[in-house]
Amino acid sequence: MNILFLYGQILFVLLFITRYNSDITFRVIKSSILHFAPMIKLHHIVSLSDNPEYYVYTLDFTPINQSHVSTLLKMIFTNIPGEVRLRRIETNIENTDMILQKWNNMNNVDTYESKKLTKSVYNEINNIEIKNIIYMSFSWLPYMNLYKHNCQHFSNYVIDKIRNTQNQNYQNQN
């Protein structure tokens, strides 16, 4: 009888830790805005993972039709349409070069394909915490301007969402 009680307590503790312990690893990666000037790393990409040794999800906010010079020029003076992109990359979260290489290759698509890829990646996420964080990130207003609503503001917004989730989970533990 005592051994069953002990096993029950161990199982309860393991379930409690699994349910409320947030193991989301995240970081911001800086990448170039312009392909012809890769040394200017002003674009922010949030990478997050519940299994950072094997894969990461990347989130970023970018103008639609960013390859057109006119789009980038308009962004200086006015709001332009933007999109939140979500990608899954099979690599270690600390491997910045590999993340950026794969991320750049995945983003050579038009807006329709990009949105389709974002939706597909989102639908395949199993971790409920990550899925909720990304869902909240999709509520970011879909316009962009250079000064008050850009990729760096977006990355700060996502990091706040991650930290809030982790704080709530910590408070639930106590």
List keywords for this structure.
5 strands; globular; 174 residues; alpha+beta
The main sheet comes to: 5 strands, antiparallel
**Given the structure, what is the number of helices?**
6
Bulk shape: globular
Query: Would you report the number of β strands?
Result: 5
Strand content: 15-25%
Q: Distance N terminus to C terminus? A: 29 Å
Low-confidence stretches: 11-21
Helix content: 40-55%
Global mean pLDDT: 86
Secondary structure class reads alpha+beta
Number of domains: 1
Strand order of the largest sheet: 1-2-3-4-5
SSE order: HEEEHEHHHEH
Task: Tell me the Rg in angstroms.
Answer: 19 Å
Can you describe this structure?
With 174 residues, this protein is an alpha+beta fold. Helix content is 49%, strand content 20%. The protein has six helices and five strands, in the order αβββαβαααβα. The protein has a five-stranded antiparallel beta sheet with strand order 1-2-3-4-5, with helices on both faces. The radius of gyration is 19 Å and the shape is globular.
